[in-house]
User: Which sequence fits this backbone?
């Protein structure tokens, strides 16, 4: 079994001496890998979780009356 180098040594010995473009490519690869893991870790949500959200805003408002008012406004727009 190969013993892993401490990160500081790995950087100083293997990464730092490489050309800038290779180090940038490595940085991009690491960032992409971490971003992919972050997406995988996020829990999945359902649209149904939003059911009833904001219901208190519409309490006491007649839906048909509301739609009729909107239509009146549309008729008066240029």
Assistant:
């Amino acid at each position: 079994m190969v013993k892993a180098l401490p990160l500081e040594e790995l950087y100083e010995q293997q990464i730092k001496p490489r050309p800038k473009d290779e180090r940038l490519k490595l940085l991009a690869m690491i960032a992409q890998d971490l971003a992919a893991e972050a997406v995988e870790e996020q829990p999945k949500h359902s649209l149904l979780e939003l059911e009833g959200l904001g219901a208190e805003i519409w309490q006491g408002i007649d839906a048909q009356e509301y739609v009729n008012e909107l239509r009146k406004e549309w008729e008066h727009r240029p």
Q: What stands out?
A: Helices lie at 7-15, 20-41, 63-75. Residues 7-41 form one domain. The CA atoms of residues 15 and 23 lie 7 Å apart.
